[in-house]
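Morning run. Coffee first, then this:
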Amino acid sequence: MKILILGGTTEARLLCEALESRGLHHIIFSLAGVTISALPVPVETRIGGFGGIAGLARTLRDAAIDLVIDATHPFAAQMSRHAVEACALCALPLLRLIRPAWRPGTGAHWTHAPAIAEVPKALGETPRRVFLTTGRKDLDPFIDTPHFYVVRSIERPPLPLPRRSLVILARGPFALDEEITLLRHHEIDCLVTKNAGSDATAPKLEAAKQLGIEVVMVDRPPLPPANECTSVEEALAWIQGMRRSV
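And here it is:
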């Protein structure tokens, strides 16, 4: 079977490695764009967009893909929508591998924002010290706000930055004691993050809860219906079932 994995997450890479180790499939691993920090995978890799739904459908036909795994980031909504539409056009099976969303738990103080553009409204006008972990491409809404931001990113964010900000370049996983130390050191009074659901970056939420710090959580965008699983093991079982049915 020829499988296209739409990557961009740790789970995508782990699934790719697990499938390659079995030697039963031809895997094509796709990344949306050139990412300096992307970890390599031991299979054929393509970089860049597809040119919309029609372009993706054409790629699926030209490459003779048998099934598609959407293991993109939970906030890569456009790619997920295009995958559903393109697979429908090509009558191909699609599985969405998506991390379970974070939940606040007892004692957490969360304020929800439906989109990144709504976060400044949730922060208010009184200057605050904000730990901003929404990704390097989502800084525009914060450029002209009165707050001080500690921005953590795997890669250096593009300019312009919020006028009062400090950039920390780091890749998870992050330990709980490290996150508590960071929040205390920078006197953070609000954590802003997207509900990515990653175990590697979840300790910041527990740190905020222990320190009584508010979390502004950007909720996930809605996605069209698709077959879904929440772990690499479930994805492997689904693929094995599809292989038997071919």
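The mean pLDDT is 93. Good start to the day.
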